[in-house]
Structure to design on (156 residues):
């Protein structure tokens, strides 16, 4: 698996960094690097680090929250996708990125894509990734993730 620093850098590229609370395109209150506060509120432990988030957080606080979120996503992927550990690092990252953006439930709706990934038919899996509302809504991100699934190479 890729190291946490690389995963966080890539997610920041896709999600952006906002230190003040805002509402995302889905109307969810969000902060930092894609932390959906409505569905994933800040825990007491996290509050001790980031403080009163309602007035904004620091970059360090945003990265702290992101690392917690990534750890949760990876645990969920290992639990829900039996072949996750058999994927190479880059294709694992593709699923981490999609699950971070869509939620694990959203990712699990990509049944055909996941089926093809399990078969290691990465071209067909990439095509399924692009044949989705996710691809229409996130254009550049989805193109990058689909190419990563197809080629196994992350490109900026």
């Amino acid at each position: 698996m890729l190291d946490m620093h690389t995963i966080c850098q890539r997610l920041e590229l896709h999600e952006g960094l906002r230190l003040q609370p805002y509402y995302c395109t889905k109307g969810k209150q969000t902060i930092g690097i894609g932390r959906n506060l409505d569905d994933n509120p800040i825990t007491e432990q996290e509050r001790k680090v980031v403080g009163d988030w309602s007035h904004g957080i620091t970059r360090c606080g945003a990265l702290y929250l992101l690392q917690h979120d990534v750890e949760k996503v990876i645990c969920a992927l290992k639990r829900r996708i039996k072949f996750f550990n058999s994927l190479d690092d880059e294709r694992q990252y593709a699923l981490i990125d999609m699950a971070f953006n869509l939620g694990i439930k959203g990712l699990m709706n990509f049944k055909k894509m996941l089926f093809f990934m399990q078969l290691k038919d990465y071209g067909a899996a990439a095509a399924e990734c692009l044949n989705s509302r996710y691809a229409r809504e996130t254009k550049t991100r989805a193109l990058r993730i689909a190419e990563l699934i197809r080629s196994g190479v992350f490109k900026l």
Q: What stands out?
A: The helical segments are 4-15, 44-50, 59-80, 89-108, 111-118, 122-130, 133-151. The chain is about 60% helix and 10% strand. The first helix runs from residue 4 to 15. The chain has one domain: 4-151.
